[in-house]
């Protein structure tokens, strides 16, 4: 096979057994890779009602055909499992260098099953793989583990590890690769911790074989040249200032979540946004494998109580650990980001849980006798302390470690958790961004912006603008973008480059460039329409897993703060999210019933019927 | 009439004195296109344009006291 390695590695942690399996060429063609392989294996092999932290759950780590190639941003892999935070599917995505190494080691996917009784790590050295004891690594931070693992395996090895948060099964623990890149969302790190798998370490130095090297090279050059031409007059803001520049878009539109989504504008935004980060703490921009953008931030806080160095913050962290907690101290939120990276925690759910705690505290529902400290809006010291306590499950951190929904429910106010399906929202208030509300509510993993991100067209003008306040036009756009994101995540590409260069530059975003690159790599001879259909297949397969796990239409919902409480300030003042108005038209055009269940006709059309019935 | 202009990232290069936020005097009835031309922003430089927090186009008419925000298209967060 070309583009694909044609091989998956099955790792049974209960038996300590590793087997290599051929990749079915039909599955490769029908699901592309990455997120597609994730849902293929998960729905085939995992009972959707299983205990996410039990041995019956599996972790699928999968790269795409473009991962590890010279394709622009061919750096991504996807971790698919059943989430312990939500009980839904999750498919967390990350870049860096580990995914390319995994692919270059000759593997498209790892299927990790069972559970070990003792801590272990998986060492893949090209074609050889073994499980090794990891007692000596258990308890280490992600950075310490990365150092130790590269020392005892190979200096050029790449790692994906869990920190203490994953070991202690913090329900939103991340898997950190290359030290500071995160497959962050919905607790993939906790599943790894429950399996007592400390790390996956890979050395991969092979080349991914291409079906048509000349065509691949030509497509690659064409899109890289387009990037160069456009950025000549328009330096990419993500390279200059990192994703934290996005605050400009959200604050200007009045959708920058503030104090647990009580407001959409933050008075301290200029203290924490990208340009301030550049001026005060940026050391250098850092690209992932094969990326011309380089949005990653290596930063350093030279002095003061939050002194430190590491990577970040990204936009989502600036929202979650910043405005959402009322924190305008960039050093404090950056330090909390470093702690998240070192302990292995998703920054979004961490900030959202603290914001929820702050609101409960300010309302008098949560007492200092329980938290051990005042938990007030804007307190940067409390922010850093609570983050550390959560990662270690110490004191009140043990309650925060269960996530915002369980916290708010414990204190009798579940509606104060800003979640969809139990997963915390990203940094966009859907009251002033109607499409984002529909995207949060219908995302198969819950409140994620990365399952078809309407912020591109609603806020950021990419590829072309659409009005964020209208809801009537959003169902078809959200569906189209959700399917596109399945394709991007399956191919092994990054969304940031893809939406500007690898799709037609209109709201219908036909994946023309992605198709060209896929064909050059795999020789599959896809049409853009077939590739779009694969995106729809993946999305519907994820939906079926979700429904089988017990989710229904009532779970395609948003908290009353978003659908009933009008936005109090800013350009979106007076608005609520019209979710119910959007949901039925969305179901209809997806070919789903009024209860949100894909029809047999739709499943048949996507080739899912037989498999799901079997 | 006077409007307030907020510029970000590379668009600040076109702000008088490099200040992110400033007041600008324009002829009555001026449009966003007139503002872009007053700031000498070249056509090749792309900008997302908001007037009072709502999406605007080059033809959008401005009124005294309006707040205009200009930032480059971004790939996201």
Description:
The complex is a heterodimer of chains A (614) and B (77). Chain A is α+β, with helices and mostly antiparallel strands and 614 residues long. Helices cover 42% and strands 13% of the residues of chain A. In chain A, the strands form 4 sheets. Chain A has a 6-stranded mixed β-sheet with strand order 2-1-6-3-4-5, sandwiched between helices. A 6-stranded mixed β-sheet of chain A has the order 8-7-12-9-10-11. In chain A, a hairpin with a 6-residue loop joins β4 and β5 (89-94). Chain B has 77 residues and is mainly β. Chain B has one domain: Beta-grasp domain (Ubiquitin-like (UB roll), Roll), CATH 3.10.20. A 5-stranded mixed β-sheet of chain B has the order 2-1-5-3-4, with no helix packed on it. Chain B is globular, with a radius of gyration of 12 Å. Chain B starts with a strand and ends in a 6-residue tail after the last strand. The model of chain B has no long low-confidence stretch (mean pLDDT 92). Chains A and B meet through α8, α9 and α22 of A and β4 of B.
Core attributes:
heterodimer; A: 614 residues; alpha+beta; 6-stranded mixed sheet; 13% strand; globular; B: mainly beta; 5-stranded mixed sheet
By helix and strand content of chain A, what is the structural category? Answer: alpha+beta
Please report the number of helical segments of chain B. 1
Contiguous runs where pLDDT drops below 50 for at least 5 residues of chain A: none
Identify the strand order in the major beta sheet of chain B: 2-1-5-3-4
The level of helicity of chain B is under 10%
Spatial ordering of strands, largest sheet of chain A: 2-1-6-3-4-5
What separation lies between the terminal Cα atoms of chain B?
Answer: 36 Å
Unreliable stretches of chain B (pLDDT < 50, length at least 5) are none
In the CATH classification, which architecture of chain B applies? Roll
- Report Rg of chain B: 12 Å
Q: What is the number of E strands of chain B?
A: 5
CATH domain fold name of chain B: Ubiquitin-like (UB roll)
Q: What proportion strand of chain B? A: 25-35%
């Amino acid at each position: 096979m070309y583009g694909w390695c044609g091989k998956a590695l099955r790792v049974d942690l209960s038996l300590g057994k590793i087997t290599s399996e051929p990749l079915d060429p039909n599955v490769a063609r029908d699901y592309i890779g990455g997120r597609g392989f994730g849902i293929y294996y998960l729905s085939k092999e995992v009972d959707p009602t299983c205990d996410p932290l039990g041995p019956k759950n599996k972790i699928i780590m999968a790269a795409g055909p473009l991962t590890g190639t010279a394709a622009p941003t061919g750096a991504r892999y996807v971790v698919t499992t059943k989430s312990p935070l939500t009980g839904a599917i999750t498919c967390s995505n990350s870049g860096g260098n580990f995914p390319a190494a995994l692919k270059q080691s000759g593997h498209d996917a790892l299927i990790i099953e069972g559970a070990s009784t003792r801590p272990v790590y998986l060492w893949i050295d090209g074609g050889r793989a073994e499980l090794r004891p990891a007692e000596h690594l258990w308890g280490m931070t992600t950075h310490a583990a990365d150092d130790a693992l590269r020392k005892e395996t190979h200096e050029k090895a790449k790692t994906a590890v869990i920190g203490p948060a994953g070991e202690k099964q913090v329900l939103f623990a991340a898997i950190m690769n290359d030290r500071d890149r995160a497959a962050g969302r919905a607790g993939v790190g906790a599943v790894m911790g429950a399996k007592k798998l400390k790390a996956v370490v890979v050395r991969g130095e092979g080349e991914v074989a291409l079906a048509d090297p000349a065509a691949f090279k030509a497509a690659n050059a064409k899109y890289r040249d387009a990037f160069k031409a456009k950025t000549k007059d328009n330096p990419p803001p993500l390279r200059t200032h990192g994703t934290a520049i996005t605050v400009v878009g959200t604050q200007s539109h009045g959708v920058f979540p503030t104090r647990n989504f009580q407001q959409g504008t933050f008075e301290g935004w200029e203290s924490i946004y990208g340009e301030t980060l550049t001026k005060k703490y940026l050391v250098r921009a850092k690209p992932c494998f094969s990326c011309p953008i380089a949005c990653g931030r290596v930063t350093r806080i030279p002095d003061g109580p939050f002194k430190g160095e590491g990577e970040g913050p990204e936009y989502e962290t600036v929202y979650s650990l910043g405005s959402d907690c009322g924190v305008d101290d960039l050093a404090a939120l950056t330090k909390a980001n470093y702690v998240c990276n070192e302990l292995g925690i998703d920054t979004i759910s961490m900030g959202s849980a603290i914001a929820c705690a702050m609101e409960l505290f300010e309302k008098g529902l949560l007492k200092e006798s329980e938290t051990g400290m005042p938990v007030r809006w804007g307190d940067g010291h409390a922010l850093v302390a609570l983050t550390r306590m959560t990662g270690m499950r110490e004191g009140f951190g043990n309650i925060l470690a269960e996530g915002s929904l369980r916290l708010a429910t414990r204190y009798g106010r579940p509606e104060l958790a800003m979640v969809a399906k139990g997963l915390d929202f990203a940094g966009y208030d859907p009251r002033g961004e109607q499409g984002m509300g529909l995207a949060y509510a219908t995302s198969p993993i819950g409140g994620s912006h990365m399952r078809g991100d309407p912020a591109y067209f609603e806020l950021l003008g990419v590829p072309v603008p659409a009005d964020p306040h209208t809801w009537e036009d959003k169902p078809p756009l959200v569906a189209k973008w959700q399917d596109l994101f399945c394709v991007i995540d399956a191919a092994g590409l990054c969304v940031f480059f893809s939406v500007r260069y690898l799709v037609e530059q209109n709201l219908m975003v036909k994946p023309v460039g992605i198709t060209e690159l896929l064909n050059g790599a795999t020789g599959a001879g896809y049409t853009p329409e077939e590739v779009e259909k694969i995106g729809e297949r993946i999305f519907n397969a994820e939906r079926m897993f979700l429904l089988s796990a017990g989710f229904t239409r009532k779970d395609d919902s948003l908290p009353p703060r978003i659908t009933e409480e009008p936005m109090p300030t800013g350009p979106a003042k007076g608005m609520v999210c019209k979710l119910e108005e959007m949901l039925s038209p969305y179901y209809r055009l997806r070919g789903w019933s009024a209860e949100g269940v894909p029809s047999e006709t739709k499943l048949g059309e996507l080739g899912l019927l037989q498999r799901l019935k079997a | 009439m006077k409007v307030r202009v907020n510029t970000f990232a590379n668009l600040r290069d076109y702000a008088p004195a490099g200040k992110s936020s400033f007041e600008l005097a324009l002829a009555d009835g001026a449009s966003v296109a007139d503002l872009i031309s007053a700031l000498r922003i070249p056509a090749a430089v792309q900008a997302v344009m908001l007037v009072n927090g709502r999406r605007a186009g080059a033809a959008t008419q401005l009124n005294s006291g309006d707040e205009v925000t200009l930032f480059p298209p971004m790939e996201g967060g």
